[in-house]
Amino acid sequence: MAITELVKANRAFTSKIAGQSVLLAVEDAARVRDALGLPLPMGIPLAFIEPVLDPLGDLVSRYARTHGPFLTSEVAARFGLGVAIVQSALDRLGADGRVVQGEFRPIATQGGATGLEWCDAQVLRRIRQRSLAALRAEVEPVDRAAYARFLPAWQHINSSLRGHDGVLTVIDQLAGVPIPVSAVEPLVLAVRVRDYSPALLDELMASGEVLWSGAGSLPGNDGWISLHLAESAALTLSPAEDYMPGALALRVQEFLSSGGAYFFQQLRLGLSDTELPSNEALTSALWELVWAGRVGNETFAPVRGMLDGGHTAHKQKARTPRLRPGRLPGAQGAGRYAGLSRPATPMGSPMVGGRWSSFAVATEVLEPTVRAHAMADTHGPLRGSHARLGCRGGSARRIRLNVQGALPP
């Protein structure tokens, strides 16, 4: 009824475009006549049949404003024109900044057609704004109570993890996270793996599945270390960037960077080409490189040995000392090797036990997004801890995950 009244009032008229009947506003009479060659009915006021500057450009621009991303062929089919004619009009609009060209939709949504698409600049801006608003709504942080319920379960606190698989699961989640040495086993691994014992970690390191690296020293006999899965260590190792090694530490680093793993005495003798370092100096240089994240050891024994040497941030259980030949109480000098002279070395010191090797320092800087994905499993919702792990970019790069759906009721 309303359409009939508009036609009778001479405010609209009917015609055919590309074989389809359409209703056109009388204000577009000159545009469809000059752009599409449509005949006009009698009775249209003279003011609406005066030629316009760019009739086809006006029609194509209106199509762009009322549609999302589209192909040139879609506009040509809509108006019953050749693709080249429509392409020329779109090029003019693009030069004026009224439409933009690009790949906006997956090919599957284009009916199998391929090629660059067009979109009105204002429409594209609205699409981006609404898409960002929808994404922000999906990642809004939950309240503190919900986060407090979620975090212990996410971190496997008092979980049913057991054995080697349980330790690997925990290390996979905490890979690259700096933890105080004195807290790694009693406060991190032991509370997450029900049957945890140091032997489980030792066996995983002996098999080459797990490695550890230093991340800075702490007062007393303590420091920051990180555990890593060997297969993904390139993502989680984070050596100090501004580290300037001392003279002996530099010699050790250069020697180990050539490849291979060396026991303490092998390393000491390998450095004797210029000057044989003392045991104390070499031990200090090794741990300087450890805290800088440059070298590591095949076992966790040096870390435990350091904890046994003095004050730490967390209390440690007393360890049962191991007896060695010739060291039995009341039998000084007795034993299988009693007659052999021993060099004055710290070979008996657990701080330098095992074989030492160098971590390959990556020359390629990882994209922050890659490192952020590697951290997402560790923290769940991320706020500021990414800075401690070397993910730069400020608050604009902080990731906040919505965990509401993962929480128990």
TrEMBL record:
Residues 312-325 have a biased composition (Basic residues). Keywords: ATP-binding, Helicase, Hydrolase, Nucleotide-binding. Pfam families: WHD_2nd_Lhr, WHD_3rd_Lhr. Residues 3-50, 142-230 form the Large helicase-related protein winged-helix domain. InterPro entries: WH2_Lhr (IPR055369), WH3_Lhr (IPR055368). The keyword Nuclease does not apply. GO terms for molecular function: helicase activity. It comes from the Bacteria. Residues 308-343 are annotated as: Disordered. This is ATP-dependent helicase. It comes from Renibacterium salmoninarum (strain ATCC 33209 / DSM 20767 / JCM 11484 / NBRC 15589 / NCIMB 2235).
